[in-house]
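Intended use. Records like the one below are meant for learning the mapping from a protein sequence to its folded structure. Do not use them to infer anything beyond what is encoded.
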Amino acid sequence: PLPGVPDLLKTLSESGVHLALATSSHTANFKLKTLHLQSLFRSFPDDQKVLGDDARIPPGKGKPAPDIYLLALETINSGLSKKGKKEIKREECLVFEDSVPGVEAGRRAGMRVVWCPHPQLLKEYKGREKEVLAGLANGGGDVQVKEVMEEAAVGGEGKGRGWPGRRDDGWAELIPSLEGFQYSRYGIRK
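Structure written out for the chain above:
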């Protein structure tokens, strides 16, 4: 796993943070990639793991579309609702991503994003980090993102900080490593 991930998942779990997994990997590939990391992935309840070939995700709606993150949130809220607990809002979510399409998906979902890319990927996007963090690195522009968001009924005018697709809006951040993650910065108590 990426450095810092085991401690991050342990701390989040122990802090009572609700976790869901949203990966573009299809079931067979996910099993191959995670076979040696079973203890790590036990942090995610089975009903809160959304894989790339999940039948609930419409065809053509994988990352960078927001559907996978919205479905992951739905799995969390379904469990909370059954227990009579308050549901979590999109803007209360924090997405951890290593991919560029994943950052865009998280932004389109109206969620905060922490981008922790592989060093080689970061080199490929050198000078374009702000575009990535805004969810605009795949050739889209502010107008295109606005149209996608309106179609998906995500966000809304006047929302300011949380409106995906704006550079330097504080809703996405690049960190080189998850080691020493600053939980308090995101309102998470250790």
